[in-house]
Specification:
With 388 residues, the chain is an alpha/beta fold. The chain is built from 9 helices and 30 strands. A 7-stranded mixed β-sheet has the order 5-4-1-6-11-8-12. Strands 14-17-20-23-26-29 form a 6-stranded parallel β-sheet, with no helix packed on it. A hairpin with a 5-residue loop joins strand 9 and strand 10.
Length: 388
């Protein structure tokens, strides 16, 4: 087995409860994003661009669609004889086995996989964030600091700080305080859930954590605080680019809308840092005579006969004659009937908005959502068009 300096362990078992009907039968990393991607594409593409070619993908909740999508890793160049991508679900071992009990336990259960590659360093990342990041630069900082662990951090608005792991660092970047989702944050420097560990230090911590019956087996709640208390060398790594945790309907909608804003930092057309994905291989989109499309992302196979403003349309979407779509996200195969109106909404995969129906409102602070495969009719509006 080839020895790797650094391998990645990608946590992709998230249930995504706050995404409601969009993750009822789907793992959060498999949720569609940006017209042609799924959320996990960003983390996998980051690995490839960063020169990390051995990635363990840890799946658990509703893995069928995600596993099928990942395949053998071909779209990301991870279909390799040595290294490459490996899907790692929980399984029963000779000494027993359980579902992954937490983020740390998920890595613990795969110590055997990690040791096959004898790495010096392990990158632990999540499959449910939108960002472009060179992990190689973070690894170099980790080595310069002779750190046991390095935590990628980003400055967040104070009003949001209590949603994250919050840390305080000294002038050298060394972490001096850490609190997971504190009610009264001491700073607004938030953990991105991206960690580089020196493998011997992480291995020891994982074994200790598993032996602690009171532990919740989580990096933010248990591993990082324990390492800090024990005097381990923990350093922060500041990230200055675009990063968004798309864990809510509002944040998922906003991240899609950011793609339509020339002032936003998220660019998908950068040839030096492409985001790779599975190609749907559909015909070119078609806008009929009389159709009107402005400021929108429109993917392959779309048929547009109405008006589309500031919206993101995935492949195979149909927008009927006389219909109006604005500030919305239409996922693959969604159908908007003739004369319908869709505003500030997310329409799930293969969902149907029947002729003349109204979904969402420009005057509402909420984002309307129609779940995958649902049919929206006026008579059962409260049942089938849910707002969050």
């Amino acid at each position: 087995m080839r020895r790797n300096e650094c391998i990645a362990m990608l946590l992709a078992g998230g249930e995504g409860r706050r995404l409601g009907v969009l993750t009822k039968d789907l793992a959060k990393p498999a949720v569609h994003f940006g017209g042609k991607y799924r959320i996990i594409d960003f983390t996998l593409s980051n690995c490839v661009h960063s020169g990390i070619d051995t990635v363990g993908v840890l799946t658990q909740y509703q893995p069928l669609v995600l596993n099928r999508y990942l395949g053998i890793g071909s779209p990301w160049g991870l279909d390799r004889k040595e290294g490459g991508m490996h899907v790692l679900p929980p399984y029963v071992r000779s000494k027993g086995g359980t579902w992954y009990k937490g983020t740390a336990n998920a890595i613990y259960q795969n110590i055997g996989f990690i040791e096959r590659y004898e790495p010096e360093f392990v990158l632990v990342i999540s499959g449910d964030h939108i960002y472009k990041m060179d992990y190689g630069l973070m690894l170099e900082a980790h080595k310069r600091n002779r750190a046991d662990a390095t935590i990628a951090v980003i400055t967040v608005p104070w009003r949001d700080a209590s949603r994250f792991g919050i840390l305080t660092a000294d002038e050298s970047g060394r972490v001096v305080e850490f609190a997971e989702k504190p009610k009264k944050p001491a700073s607004n420097l938030a953990s991105m859930g991206v960690y580089v560990f020196s493998w011997p230090a992480l291995r020891e911590e994982l074994i200790r954590d598993e032996a602690d019956k009171s532990s919740s087996n989580d990096f933010g709640k248990d591993i990082i605080p324990r390492m800090l208390r024990d005097g381990a060398r923990l350093y922060s790594y500041r990230f200055e680019g675009y990063w968004k945790d798309v864990g809510t309907i509002e944040s998922l909608w906003q991240a899609n809308m950011d793609l339509l804003d020339d002032r936003a930092d998220l660019r998908l057309n950068d040839p030096a840092w492409r985001i790779f994905s599975v190609n749907p291989n559909q015909p070119a989109h078609y806008a009929a005579a009389g159709a009107h499309v402005t400021g929108s992302l429109v993917n392959e196979g779309c048929l547009i006969r109405g008006t589309v403003n500031r919206s993101v349309l995935f492949h195979g979407v149909t927008v009927g004659e006389g219909s109006f779509v604005e500030d919305s996200v239409l996922m693959p195969g969604a159908v908007v009937g003739a004369g319908a109106r869709v505003v500030r909404a997310i329409i799930g995969e293969e969902a149907v908005i029947e002729d003349g129906c109204r979904v969402g409102s420009a005057d509402s602070d909420e984002i309307a959502v129609v779940g995958s495969g649902e049919t929206y009719r006026d008579e059962n509006r409260l049942k089938e068009a849910k707002t969050v």
